[in-house]
């Protein structure tokens, strides 16, 4: 290949001009309308190198942002944009200043490449501010996840059931709130509390209609787990049939501008949901430690028979756990829906992260679920940032992730790695006790 | 209302249902269900990541074309290698722990595998969310069947040759005798007579059903080869479970401590069962992707695992016959509900309402209804007949820890 290239370079006699057209534009997205506008950038230097690394041609963009560079033949080239010639404050949107052109790209006599600049502000933010922002987002997500997971963990603790339909319980209230808010036109401040109570009732009904009879018939825990899988399938498809598969946003609190708060920027909505989540979780923690019902719940979790023999009505405790767990899951679902939009898969997509959080914290321990899920939420958001102090910037994936951060499409991957390491090293989790395992 | 029923195309419903009973979906589900049966039915391991193992097989075949550029036959050893690695990653951290840990980790890792193969980051290897398409042509094109022809499993079909006729009759009669005797042993009454009558009745039903089937010639070869794979693997597992190894596996399900006290390494046996079941499931993924010449990452979501589980529970756990007949009936039921609801919606003018409650307002809802009803079937089976059609209630791992 290199020889052919060299031969072609030596005899620059060509019938038609083979050109690589490079267009450089600045892309500005208007946050309010969601539309983006493009403006040409002039005076940007572009260098074309051949497959052997020798510079073949150069060009500079004109007023229309276009540089037409004549190349000797249809072959493989690398087109490099000289970032130092970009006007001050402009950065390439994807950070990729090099583009490869292969022989196959020349369908006609020319190839057009588009470079976009934009997001100049975001990349100019320092690493530590970015990290602070991610940690703030992660903490918020961790609180939501913890709310969803506490119910799952309490249900597991008191009944032994690993509820695979818990994600659908989370989705339920988010959908109810959506219908009330968007289709009935009620304020979300009214719709959300109603939906949360409905979520609690839904949990209670699930227990009364399905799991309580199964327990009375002494059907094994694995059977109950498979039943919960079936219920998850039923609920997901009912949601899908009536709601459709698309992600939809609540009408209320939809667009908000964020306010600076130290190094991070949060919207009033996010600040409120985080505060409510924190308050609810503290309440649950205090209730578990201090109140009679909370103590009884922990007693049933530890040893159901022993608790019953001291006069605790374990079935009543289980009903309370389903109701409160359902309400917490509902709150988490609505808050998540405010963040990411509502879809039938909202809760199911969180289920694995909840499991990871519960495993990390210790299966069956409510405080473990709380701490574990919070850490998982934090970790998921932070992992996409990476650590510039680590080596491996040019290593192949996944080894470059330590340096560059995890691609956001795979941000769940490190969570599963953590989960497996926890199971290998300390299967009882951070707060679990050894005899629970095995 | 009744007039609407007579407007529906019942011939179409019958053909679609019976075609699905013997179809590609039932075939690859049966392979995956035999694998799940080794893990769940015989060893009592609750593997919720069977879709991940199936994806191992499908992507092993796909990658031979997309990434390695070698003959697709290399996909078989590669699939078994992938399944072994995948099984080790799942099993090593969890098999010493309680069974719910295995369920959680397997379902999470299978989902992670799907995220990885559909990611842009690893597009070089797996071609992202487009999946890998147009491979295995050497397999599908070298076919004795006319690609544009129509074929059925009716042994006296005009397109069938002598070999095909003899093979079909042989397989149908052997299968009928096996299934018939199994049902007869399970029923009260004159067992000796039933052991003769039931196989004949089932043979007649299978022949009648086979007459209704209709397959395109293009995928017919992979269908035939796939069912042969089902029967070969099924026979091997049937024998394996009567070997000393199989008895240890079943012993672990019944009482781990008892087997441990005999000096067996439980952990190692569980790991072997998990990997064996996974390696079998890869053949399901391979046959499915070969029959279409295409691998799609989203075919291997957690729903696939759940529906393989449903099909297995329907047939009956810890029975090879159950793991083959279950998927056939599962797809028959699924296709029946689907086409029935479609025809019903058509006959009732695009809307199904019962007592004023709108159940179906557009045909795009039918898929969700079908899956929801199948989920309901899983719940009802688990509650009222956990042994499924052929299983033995005493031989159930479901009441374990």
Protein architecture, described:
- The complex is a heterodimer of chains A (438) and B (401).
- With 438 residues, chain A is of the alpha+beta class.
- Chain A has 2 domains: 2-123, Sandwich (Immunoglobulin-like), CATH 2.60.40; 126-436, ABC transporter involved in vitamin B12 uptake, BtuC (Orthogonal Bundle).
- Chain A is 54% helix and 13% strand.
- In chain A, the strands form 3 sheets. In chain A, strands 1, 2, 5 and 8 form a 4-stranded mixed sheet that branches. Chain A has a 4-stranded antiparallel sheet with strand order 4-3-6-7, with no helix packed on it.
- Mean pLDDT of chain A is 84; it is low at 1-15.
- Chain B has one domain (2-152, 213-399): ABC transporter involved in vitamin B12 uptake, BtuC.
- A two-stranded antiparallel sheet of chain B has the order 1-4.
- In chain B, helix 4 packs antiparallel against helix 5.
- Chain B is globular.
- Chain B starts with a helix and ends in a 17-residue tail after the last helix.
- Chains A and B meet through helix 6, helix 11 and helix 14 of A and helix 5, helix 6, helix 15 and helix 17 of B.
